Each structure stands twice: as structure tokens, then as C-alpha cells.
């Protein structure tokens, strides 16, 4: 019940134990094509180029940025938590001239703040996190795409922690590139990074196409500044997932089975229903921790559905209480980073763990652990408040 | 029965369906530490820094090269097949000044050829493939480490296709960095890249250490030229696997379970026994294809144990025969790349498929497919020759 990774859906784990098939077996290429279609529904997009990067969510971020950004390009990162710093760090390693704007942890940006910075910096790429588990905040994106389109800026969004549990509409919001991971609201294990790219983003990457020696044909003329990574060269990865099926990496078959099952379950549930499920269980957990007398961190109106941060009560040993939750009750809750380190716990309700029994048992256990630590808690206050939300 | 990826051992797939645990759960960090110890046995090394890169085997190659190589460094690649070209391509993207030497496909280099080039180029890194499935050749490495040590050159080896099925002794042969994948002789799915680094390689990477902003402490002084990738920054990956457990990527838990099981099974069998198993079944397949009247490609004295390339007989439609093997008999055999494209098939005997029944049924089916295609084959000639090897 931490901020992720969380328990995977048993159906996803079962899917991952299926027998392998060859890289170019018609069954395998059909699975790849199905996976592309399923993730179009997850990202609410018509983007043809919707596929998986073979690595953790951070691999998806790096693939997006290294493929879009040439050395010297300006990148603007609105930082409202730890993962904005990560985007900054990765963009810098791509050779970008990175500009940042910041709000205090626990807040998000207004469209006006972002537009002012876009107009001033004139970046090639605006790189923004949707949901930052470090602060629990969910940055509204609906207006940013229009701002970026007007200023001819590419909009990249890291939706690792948010997609599936919070609304995300890639086409409607004009997001050029979105990346994700399986280990949060998608209910799978870390290790595969779904990605979607708009035609505008694809055109930018196509202008840097250098097909690998030994595979290129006479019509493959290298152009533009070569992408600094082979593994993350999305032009080549698109050729592998696309009709040409040009050999690149050896697709991680078991992870593909898992990623496909994550999306299949979400699409079967319905994306809106999945988001509503996360809203419900997130609201129950929020009410529950308040019912235990805990103070919630940050601007709750912009809190992600799937995680809440609570101040560690005075007098309670934060790490000791987390250890007691894990050792005595088998429930993991999260510590925190940076300015919040040692000050808050983070409790998730996402993916397979966005369930009533998971919320209730976590609150019941937390009440006991707080009481053992000497906190003044109302007996039944947590589960009672959550039950009220459910009723 | 292709050159990989091949069927995974069912025990590996079962291990991958185990429930997830949290990233810093004591059970998870214990699994990570166990996995490091198991891969030390696989690579026959005492190297402390032996762990997994979260991606396919190509991710391991890129992590090794981008972490070792600074822009402008000289890298020497002896090219004897497709994967030498891949090392060249990746090293170029790292900004290296790449020098190559080549032998015709189907041959390997002598130590003298390599030493002459090392003395002439004076590279920082010699990057060499051990086994190249494109040609089936296995480059002898025993002498190269001593040559590199004498010339103060770092020796990187891509052992993806060879380790587990052919002798590899990282310490005895003074290999500074070795990377692998699971999908060949290790009997698992693609998606995790085991790596081992000598103290000399670690020192080079430590001199480029830049701990991520937001995680660095006052004692973490950035030094050297920053590694161009965040995801593949082995200094940070080592801090994640090491005692500091500094947050980097979110470890791909299911892939780690799989990688751990691959190594556990190999170590339980004994590395020497596993190599002998690959030798035996490779010898049976070699005898079998010859028994079918097929001509073997390349210098057989340097053939890898786990794959054989055979010339497609005149008059046989190579792709049609492969399709018949898959459709009628459920057996995949491989096509080929580059100068061998359309000229040879590649047949593997590796990992879980290094088994007597897999060899025999492949030869039985291939006899039928060759006969259907109009080739002149001796009835029973393939399985008979293989059976003689087994008896």
C-alpha cells in the first residue's frame, strides 16, 4: 500500500508465465499489434505509434527525451516534486539547455504560470510530470497542450504514476508524447514502459532517423543529428513495432505478456470505470486517515486519486511505525524523499490495491500501530470514516 | 530451435509469476543480493559488482559502453559478425572514435591479430563479442585479457549468446566487463541483462560519478565527465544494488525473479555440467544436420556449442521450409542476417532446448520438410547420426 511499486494483479502475473514464442512468430507479432491497440485505449489516443519501451518507466522517459532532444535544444521543466528533478536530470544528460520553474511541494502550476515560462524560454520541449508520488500532486494538463501548440512547443508528459487512476486524454489534451510504467495504477510489475507519440512527435524523430548498419537498405538515408542512444532510439523502435519489423532489441516477451494483460484488464473494465474506482478508494483512504486524526499533506484539491501523504504525528517514530506495519501486518506504506523526508508517510490505493478490503485492513492496522506508538487515536475512526465513503 | 530467443525453462516462468514485494522490502533486497552472488558463479568471478541491468541484452551492452566510454575515447571492435557491428554502432553513439578490424563471416581472430590492432590503435576499450549467433562463431578470449592488461586497455565482452553454453571465465581471462541476456543459454525470457565489472572497470566508472540531484548528499561530489545516460549510468545502478540502496529505477521485480531462477538452475546443475550439456546436444545437432546431407557454414572448430548454421540446399525455398517447420511441426528455426541472408538456416540447441528430445524431433521434422521440398535426403540420416553421438 505504498506509492508504488505495488502488488500486481494475479491475472497479470499468470499471463507472464505463458510459454514464449519466437520474436517473429506470427503469434508474437499479433500480440505486439494487439498491445499497441490496447494502449491506444489506455492513453485515449488514435496515435499509430503507441508501443512499449523495454525497461522500467524511467527507460520510457529517457527514450522520449533522448529521441526528441538534440544537444543544445531548450527544454522547460515545471518542477513540483521529485520527478520534475528527474526529468531535468535526464534532459541535461541529453545535452539540453534545461530551464525550470518551481512551485513549493504540495502545489501545482496554473496554466498562466506555465504559459509565461513557455513564452519566456521558448523551449523545443515542455516536459512535465502528471502525477508526482513524492508530493501526491496531479498537475492539470488540459490547458497545457493548447498553450504548447500555440507556441510550437512539443509537450512531453510522464504519466507513470497517474495513468489508469486519474484522467488522461492524450489526443484531447494534445499531449505529444506520454510515457508510463506498469507498477502503479496499471497493476503490473515494473519493467515495461508504454509510450504514445503524436504525429508531430513522430515527424521530429523521423528527421533524426539513422537505421542501424547491417539492417539499412539503400532507401534508408541517414538524416539529422543521430540520437545519442541506440537502445532508446525511438525511430528504430518504431521500425521494430511497425510494418517493417526491423530487428532492434529482442522484445521482452514475458514483460509484453504482462503489459498486454494490464491494458486488457483496464480496457475491459473501462478507462472511466477504472479512474472512478481509484477515485472511490482514494476518497475512502483520505477520509480514513483523517478519521485516524492524521493531517494530510498538500493541496488536496489537486491530490492524485491513488496516493495520499500524511504527516507523521509528533512523537511517533516514522520508520519504526512503517516497520511495524510491514512486520506485524504484512502491509507496506511509503517513506518520502527530499524536503518531506522523515515528515510524511505515503499511502497508495492503486492498481490491484485499489480495493475496499485493502483500504479497510490498512486503516485497521495503522490504527493499531499508531496506538502502540503512543498516538491519541479514536478507536474505529479510520475504518469508520472509510466505510461512510463506501456507503 | 532458432538462434534465440528460445523457449524458457518452465521453472523460470513459474518463478516470474510469484507475488511482488516492495522495492526496499527486506525480502526484495535479499533477493537482489542473492542474485548478485548467483551471477558471480555464472560469470566465474569474484567481482563484487555483478548485478542486472533492467532491459534486454542490448541494454546491458549500452550500459557498459556508455559508462566506460567518454566522447572522443578510442574503442577497438574486432568484427566477425553482426553483433560486432552493433558494438560499433553503440560505441559511436557514445561519441567514441571507433576502430574496427574484420575477418570474413565464419572465422574468428587470432590473439596476434587483436594484439597488432591494440598496439596500433591504443584504444581505451577493446569491445568484443564472444559468440555471434549471426555466424555461429565463438571468439577465443583466454589470451585477450592478458593482451589488454599489458596494453592498459579495458576489455569489454558481450557474452549474450554464449554464456552458460560455452566456457567463460571472467576472472581467469581478465575480462573487465561482461554482459549477457537471459534468452539464450540461460533459459529465460529476454528483458534482463546480467553484468559483471572488474575493480578496474568500477574505478573508471567511479571517476564519472554524479549522484542524482535530490538524492546526493554533501559527500557526493560530482566528478569527471557525466555519463550521457541516466538509465544506464552504472555508477548510479551500483549505488542502487549496493549498500547505499540509493533510489534509481524501480527494479523490474518479475524479471529479477526470472533472472535469479535462471542462475539458480545453472548453478545447481554446475556451470561445467551446463556447458558440457550444450556441447553434447550441439554435437548431436551438428552430426544430425550432416547426416541429413546439409553443409555446415563456417569454421566448425570455433563454432559455439549452442547454434549451427547450415547452407540451404539448392532448390529449397528457405523461408517456405522455415514456415513449414513452424506451421506443420511447431518448431522455429532461424533465418539469417547480412551476407548470409537467404543462404543459411540457423538452428539452436540452447537453454531449455539443449535436450535430446528437442534435437531428435527437430531433425525428424527437418528431414520431412527437406523431402517435401524435393531435397535428396537419407531416410533416418539425421536422427541416426544424432543418436550415435548420444550413444
From TrEMBL, chains A, B:
The terms under GO molecular function for this entry are: transaminase activity
Family as reported in the entry's similarity comment: Belongs to the class-V pyridoxal-phosphate-dependent aminotransferase family.
Q: What is this protein called?
A: Alanine--glyoxylate aminotransferase family protein
Q: Which InterPro entries match?
A: Aminotrans_V_dom, PyrdxlP-dep_Trfase, PyrdxlP-dep_Trfase_major, PyrdxlP-dep_Trfase_small, SP_NH2Trfase/AEP_transaminase
Q: Which Gene3D superfamilies match?
A: Aspartate Aminotransferase, domain 1, Type I PLP-dependent aspartate aminotransferase-like (Major domain)
Name the Pfam families on file: Aminotran_5
SUPFAM superfamilies in alphabetical order:
PLP-dependent transferases
Q: Does the keyword Transferase apply?
A: yes
* Residue ranges constituting the Aminotransferase class V domain according to the UniProt record: 26-334
* Keyword terms, alphabetized: Aminotransferase, Pyridoxal phosphate, Transferase
User: So which cofactors does this thing need?
Assistant: pyridoxal 5'-phosphate
Coiled coil located at which positions?
none
Show which residues constitute the signal peptide. Answer: none
